């Protein structure tokens, strides 16, 4: 799925009249030292705007970079800031360090300020997160393991594998993947904003689980994971991997399956339906690239191979069919890669990516989406990659504006696939701010015992894209109500 643009920050030069100070106190339950503290203050306020400040104190190990996140509770909007790179998406505000103030020793503090607009009320934020750790509380965070350590496995997430055309857990019980996408990891890092769009602390993950979700799809960025030079180092390589592992652990801790997925990749494509002309991983490309994608999947598989609860989705939405004139050429490119008609870079086919994963010894569940942005599975069985573990699943995406978006198409192209292998609709959605189409999708998939995940658990305006929530506490949009209520009904 394509993404709405992030909010731009407006620079305003109006004079500021200070009219007093309101300070949010730091409150802890005991005398223990919190992992970090944040003092938030309103240093001036006028009819439509105010000036604010944050003082961050780090009580953890020394940090080489920092990012503070918090949510405005009353519709305030940041318009300008200093001593940090300020940005805002929905209600979520992020302040990331400048190049000159990224180092924050244990016990050291840093301050930053901003201007913002308000109306109605100017309530102060109640929770602050420093590099993902909640501040102003007593408990120290668990140190993030290095990327070579095995991921945490303490949660109750099922260990899924393929049995015939069904997904089953380690006890042999039939399971379905029913859940949501948590977008952000594919674009925030490469755009220089952070790791994820909005909070990914335990409370925000619990809010997902409260919808009776059992699977969370986590889109990733190839260049950020591999730490390529065009990505800010604070959001790349080991730092990015640690952030992904932390989110995966939280998802598992709430009993949900983490589905890590490669969304944006390297390779310049300017042909039909191009999402961008950039060679870097800043948009959806028609196919993965041979230069970096096999290395990406070797690294991801090595990271999670000892955790069979993690599933892998090889590539978000292939569309080599838009670059070539024949279906045979497109499906051959999809499976075998190499030199593909209409695509200037060397392509990594699905077979090479399956081989990259299995070459590490990983036996995790693998999903592979078809053509036409994963909306076409008409020849998926013919070109199915070989998997020595037999643990391969067909992935499908469907929105109300796709070509294959009717029961007649599903009956003719999806049903034959689902008769032979498990079928997971990794993205379902509609751009209507309603849910009549997704209701139809869910019924068709329910009737056949198939899996689906809604796009997306992000607080974008549902009129600019299918956004399930208006707040990370799980408040649904008029579109998201359909999925939430349906999943809760299924759970009994």
Quick gist of this model?
The chain is of the alpha/beta class and 492 residues long. Helix content is 20%, strand content 23%.
Q: Sheet bearing the most strands, described?
A: 8 strands, parallel, barrel
Count of runs of 4 or more consecutive helical residues? 10
Determine the mean pLDDT. 89
- Please tell me what the overall shape is: globular
Name the strands of the widest sheet in spatial order: 14-15-16-17-18-19-20-21
Radius of gyration: 23 Å
What is the CA-CA span between the terminal residues? 31 Å
> How helix-rich are the residues, as a percent range?
10-25%
Structural class computed from helices and strand pairing: alpha/beta
Question: Regions with pLDDT < 50 over 5+ consecutive residues?
Answer: 4-30, 139-154
Strand content range: 15-25%
**How many beta-strand runs?**
21
Keywords for this structure?
single chain, 492 residues, alpha/beta, eight-stranded parallel β-barrel, five-stranded antiparallel β-sheet, 21 strands
